[in-house]
Amino acid sequence: MQLTFTPIHKEDLEDVISMFQAAADKISRMNIDHWQYWKNPPLEKINWVKEGIENKEYFFVQNADEEVLGMVRILDEDLLYWGKQDEKARYIHSLLVKEEYNGKGLGIQILNTIAEEAKAQDCKYLRLDADSTNPKLCRYYEKQGFQKVGIKKLPISTYNLYEKALA
């Protein structure tokens, strides 16, 4: 399936929050605590999203019919989770596929698309984090070739840091 990454704009904020809330509901039904703050998001998380939109880091993932299948945040630097790094890398946050499209390989396709673009821009790594309270998600990233290289403790949760070398 051909995917396009369309920049998210500030007027899309409500749609973005709704997508996070729907994902939190799905995750809750799986009895996992991950992302539950999105049900009633704290101001700090809303501001984090607003900042990402202003920095042109958030994208809707769409199919050829321009239907929104999910979203992702792509950064050139991630000081909050990774600190200052020497190697050029691309950082992924908020990778979300709408529930009706789960199980169709879209997450893998999104990761591969980002990896190819990062590799073309001479990035050495693709990096992301996964909430340690969501072991299924951690295993998912490990199956995609990501290696756990650290842990980041933040007030909301503890995150496993993953990277994948872009050979």
Task: Describe the model.
34% of the residues lie in helices and 29% in strands. It is an alpha+beta fold and 167 residues long. The chain has a seven-stranded mixed sheet with strand order 1-2-3-4-5-7-6, with helices on both faces. A hairpin with a 4-residue loop joins strand 6 (147-153) and strand 7. Residues 3-167 form the N-acetyltransferase domain. GO terms for molecular function: acyltransferase activity, transferring groups other than amino-acyl groups. Keywords: Acyltransferase, Transferase.
CATH C-level class is: Alpha Beta
Number of individual domains: 1
In the CATH scheme, what's the topology name? Answer: Aminopeptidase
Distance between the termini: 24 Å
CATH architecture verdict: 3-Layer(aba) Sandwich
Keywords: Acyltransferase, Transferase
InterPro entries: Acyl_CoA_acyltransferase, GNAT_dom, MshD_Acetyltransferase
Organism: Psychroflexus sediminis
Domain N-acetyltransferase: 3-167
What key phrases describe this protein's structure?
alpha+beta, seven-stranded mixed β-sheet, 29% strand, Aminopeptidase, 5 helices, 167 residues, globular
